[in-house]
Specification:
Strand content: under 5%
Number of domains: 2
Number of helices: 23
Largest sheet: none
Low-confidence stretches: 389-394
CATH topology of the largest domain: Sodium/glucose cotransporter
Helix content: over 70%
Structural class: mainly alpha
Radius of gyration: 23 Å
Shape: globular
CATH class of the largest domain: Mainly Alpha
CATH superfamily of the largest domain: Sodium/glucose cotransporter
Distance between the termini: 36 Å
CATH architecture of the largest domain: Up-down Bundle
Number of strands: 0
Oligomer: single chain
Length: about 550
């Protein structure tokens, strides 16, 4: 790793100056009520919505980890980065129901569709999961990245970034988050694009990488017998995780709910889907370039996760290196800001307001600020624990989504597409699914103490992608079985919340919210996804 030069520091200083200038401008606009603070007044246009979706998704651990996947012979993992078609599902399928119901949160939608107990359960599970995974992992990985890039102590980097991000998130609310994320998206994309372009030039283009690593290295589709990435399980589980993450998780969906109407929200999702194709080329490919250069003896790093920062520090000239460093800082801060605001929204709207429904709007905004500050504090307190987590458990945290997503994805999918699914089926699926996912976690951690060949050992060691696929099927069967064994919900409660209960007016309003341009761009994105799948299939 080369140290940053004066010109690099100038670029980083300029980035922070502009970032906090934008944040200050937004903060001075004031937040009058909860709609302003948590959903930016539902006044955001499609470009900012799409940029915010992308910036929320890309964190420092995402950038470094994806490059590590490219450098560590884990090309099949790129399937999680070409889920643009799932982001399109958010805009075309799910968003109209969310927007029409006027909800702030995903648990609130479950209450409208099913029952209050489903809302309570998802709210509590989401909050705990955010604090223990999203907040802690992002802070830990960000602290490592910041300390490595800037050459400062881990604690100084982690605490400084968390406090600065928490400050403008607490004061500015969702409006500050989405506008700063737009700036961060631009910086991140430009910086990583320059690194990819210079890296390809250094290695001799795509053909130079293939000549060095072999064409088979670029094949993302492994046979069903592959112990790590069997393609049927990979395809199914990645889709389930994608639907949960992109279409039902508060962390992402909240961005589309800030849009001024369904048309702007859908176009924001379409733009976000296009941007979602970029990480393959901006982060995965640099990892492959780093591996090719290491193979040729022109670069040196110890672990795949070091591939991106080492490539950046050795390949980029002064100034540009600072721009990319600013991009990595932007990725960290945007992810933190998003999860801080989502946690605050879940606590204030789904828990505090439910307990005290007559609380004035101005007080709810202040409660939201306090909740954000508490999440920031909990994240900081969790850092020492994250520092002591072993590499195995850290990798395991990336698998957790395969264990928590199936029941939630099933409840939302069936809830919208199948009106016969009732509150009993939904709640049972959420609770039983959560317990099964938790059991898999416990079994996986204690696998070494289990008897080889036993049922428990098999459940603990079966490939996580295969487990996720069968778990999804189990949740579907459970939801349908319990729903048919209990009374059907009334049509009045379901009105406008499922495809089977849409009124003619609902259908007409939805049809008027898009045109042929939206359809054409969506089709082009689908074609691009197919092209990437073919490009990385060995079929070229």
């Amino acid at each position: 790793m080369k140290s940053l030069e004066t010109l690099d520091w100038i670029f980083i200083a300029l980035y922070f100056a502009v970032l906090f200038g934008v944040a200050l401008w937004v903060i001075l606009q004031k937040n009058r009520d909860t709609t302003d603070y948590f959903l930016a007044g539902r006044s955001i246009g499609w470009f900012v919505v799409g940029a915010s979706i992308f910036a929320s998704n890309i964190g420092s651990e995402h950038v470094v980890g994806l490059a590590g996947a490219g450098a560590g012979d884990k090309i099949p993992m790129l399937i999680y980065e070409i889920q643009a078609w799932v982001v399109l599902l958010l805009g075309w399928v799910f968003l109209p129901f969310y927007a029409r119901s006027g909800v702030f949160t995903m648990p609130e939608f479950l209450e409208r569709r099913f029952s209050p107990r489903s809302r309570w359960f998802l709210s509590l599970v989401s909050l705990i999961a955010y604090i223990l995974t999203k907040v802690s992992v992002t802070i830990y990985a960000g602290g490592v990245v910041v300390s490595a890039l800037l050459g400062i102590n881990f604690w100084v980097g982690a605490l400084g970034t968390v406090i600065l991000t928490g400050l403008y998130t607490v004061l500015g609310g969702m409006r500050a988050v989405v506008y700063t994320e737009t700036l961060q998206m631009i910086v991140l994309v430009l910086g990583a694009a320059v690194l990819t372009w210079l890296g390809l030039d250094k290695i001799g283009g795509w053909s130079g990488m293939e000549d060095t690593l072999g064409a088979e290295y670029f094949n993302m589709w492994r046979p069903p017998s592959d112990p790590d990435f069997p393609w049927p399980s990979l395809l199914i589980t990645s889709t389930v995780v994608g639907i949960w993450y992109w279409c039902t998780d508060q962390y992402i969906v909240q961005r589309t709910l800030t849009a001024r109407n369904i048309k702007q929200g859908r176009r924001g999702a379409i733009f976000g889907a296009f941007l979602k194709l970029l990480p393959v080329f901006l982060f995965l490919v640099p990892g492959i370039i780093a591996l090719a250069l290491k193979t040729k003896g022109e670069l040196q790093w110890d672990t795949p996760d070091e591939a991106f920062p080492v490539l950046m520090s050795n390949l980029l000239p002064a100034g540009i290196r600072g721009l990319v460093a600013a991009g990595l800082l932007a990725a960290l801060m945007s992810s933190l800001a998003s999860v801080f605001n989502s946690c605050s929204t879940l606590f204030t709207v789904d828990i505090y307001k439910k307990l005290k429904p007559h609380t004035p709007e101005y007080k709810l905004v202040n409660i939201g600020r306090v909740a954000t500050a508490i999440v920031v504090l909990l994240g900081i307190l969790w850092i020492p624990i994250m520092q002591n987590i072993s590499g195995v458990l850290y990798e395991y945290l990336q698998k957790v989504q395969a264990y928590i997503s199936p029941p939630i994805a099933v409840v939302f999918l069936l809830g919208i597409f199948y009106k016969r699914i009732n509150s009993h089926g939904a709640y049972t699926t959420l609770v039983v699914g959560f317990l099964i996912g938790a059991a898999r976690i416990i079994l996986e951690l204690s696998a070494e103490s289990l008897t080889p060949g036993s049922l428990l050992h098999t459940l603990a060691t079966v490939n996580f992608l295969t487990f996720g696929a069968w778990f999804f099927l189990f949740c579907i069967i459970l939801a349908i079985a319990v729903s048919y064994a209990t009374p059907q919900q009334s049509e009045a409660q379901l009105a406008g919340l499922t495809y089977g209960t849409l009124s003619d007016q609902d259908k007409a309003e939805n049809k008027s919210s898009y045109n042929w341009v939206d359809i054409l761009i969506s089709v082009l994105i689908l074609l691009l996804v197919g092209a990437v799948m073919i490009w990385f299939s060995g079929a070229r």
